[in-house]
Design brief:
Radius of gyration: 21 Å
Number of helices: 13
CATH architecture of the largest domain: 3-Layer(aba) Sandwich
Largest sheet: 6 strands, parallel
Number of strands: 14
Order of helices and strands: HEEEHEHEHEHEHEHEHEEHEHEEHHH
CATH superfamily of the largest domain: Glycogen Phosphorylase B
Shape: globular
Oligomer: single chain
CATH class of the largest domain: Alpha Beta
Strand order of the largest sheet: 11-10-9-12-13-14
CATH topology of the largest domain: Rossmann fold
Length: 385
């Protein structure tokens, strides 16, 4: 499996969950990713993490995750691909994934691509044009050349619907660990807030994710200035740090994950995510599993039509960010007041997530896809006399 980051970077959380589930199913997994952060050391037989030497400057300066393998890193990828029975790429546009694709095609190795993201509409017209060109001349040919393709968002599937796939793509969604992410009893919320430094009697709006442009940080900054009666909690990292806004109603958490992050979800009143160009953000599933109402961009509600009834969607107006911030604030008030889709109970949200987004079921679907690609490639060629 090839990704751009390991789980220790937090961007690799989805891949980490998948690897552990595949190991639990008895598979052997070699995980290749950039050495921006350390490779995991799971105490399980059949696992090996390979940290590929890469340059990771674009993330720090531009907020764009795009580690570029060095020449020795390219040779690392080639060696591992040649040893593999099946190659699984988590998305296509990252340089390590492109290199793995080319080596897999050269070695005639079965190839599966999990497509998470389609078009990211950057505000910068140069970035936007570059991504459009890359999707057209790099990603679409890769998807067409893969033995199997899985989409993790109806938005992404729609964007690439014109590709001539080798076989019909499969729609499947990432899972949620409901042993960690679950609702808190009503009387526990105040107890959870104390250790986190959150006021017990103020409404808490939560954002979880990278602090980058596409996540809507400029919208959230306007919302925090408009609504100083609300405490805005941010869990994540990135070059657009909310600490720089110098607002007393903003608190930032940089090192939360797993159980500690779940406690922050449970201590909050709702999740706010004014992002664009997403596939299907895992934070939405995690927030719903913890019983929170979710206010997100109208675009994001289309990632899975089955979940849309649990989300409060707000259209993004890129030309008028103040208007967008005002519209989000109005929907936040409705959610805090129990109006609209926020009327669903915590238990209803948790029940929906636990029934629809199972990590084990997702891993089994992956395995079926992988085995079908492998069996197709290894079938003997029968020559008719």
């Amino acid at each position: 499996m090839v990704t751009h980051y390991f789980e220790s970077h937090l961007s690799g959380m989805i891949a980490g969950h998948l690897v552990r589930q595949l190991l639990n199913l008895g598979e052997e997994v070699v995980w290749l990713s950039s050495n921006a952060t350390p490779a995991p050391s799971y105490r399980k037989d059949g696992f090996r993490g390979v940290a590929v030497n890469a340059l990771n400057v674009t993330e720090g300066y531009l907020g764009i995750p795009f580690p570029i393998p060095s020449l020795p890193g390219i040779f690392q990828i080639q060696r591992e691909v040649q040893r593999a029975d099946v190659v699984l790429l988590q998305d296509s546009l990252y340089p390590a994934c492109i290199a793995a694709f080319l080596f897999a095609r050269s070695a005639r190795a079965p190839l599966v691509i999990a497509a998470h993201v389609g078009m990211v509409p950057y505000n910068n017209p140069v970035f936007r044009a570059l991504m459009s060109l890359a999707n057209r001349f790099v990603v679409r040919p890769m998807l067409a050349g893969a033995d199997r393709v899985a989409f993790f968002s109806e938005i992404t599937a729609g964007y690439f619907s014109d590709v001539q796939f080798r076989s019909t793509p499969k729609m499947m969604f990432t899972g949620v660990d409901t042993d960690i992410f679950f609702p808190a009893p009503p009387d526990q919320k105040r107890e959870l807030r104390g250790p986190l430094g959150l006021a017990p009697d103020r409404p808490v709006a939560l954002f979880v994710g990278r602090f980058v442009e596409k996540k809507g940080l400029h919208i959230l900054a306007r919302m925090a200035r408009r609504r100083r009666d609300i405490l805005w909690a941010f869990a994540g990292w990135g070059h657009l740090n909310p600490r720089d806004w110098d607002l007393r109603n903003v608190i930032v958490f940089s090192n939360l994950s797993g159980p500690s992050l779940a406690d922050l979800y449970r201590a909050s009143d709702l999740l706010v995510l004014p992002s664009k160009g997403e596939g299907f953000p895992l934070v939405i599933q995690e927030a719903l599993a913890c019983g929170l109402p979710v206010v997100c961009s109208a675009e994001t509600t289309g990632a899975d039509t089955a979940i849309s009834e649990f989300l409060c969607g707000v259209p993004l107006d890129e030309r008028h960010p103040e208007n967008t911030a005002a519209a989000f604030c109005a929907e936040v008030d409705r959610a805090l007041g129990g109006c609209g889709n926020a009327r669903c109970s915590s238990e209803q949200r948790f029940k929906f997530v636990s029934s629809r987004y199972s990590w084990r079921a997702t891993a089994v679907e992956y395995l079926e896809l992988i085995r079908s690609a492998l069996s197709e490639r290894t079938q003997p060629v029968i020559v008719q006399p």
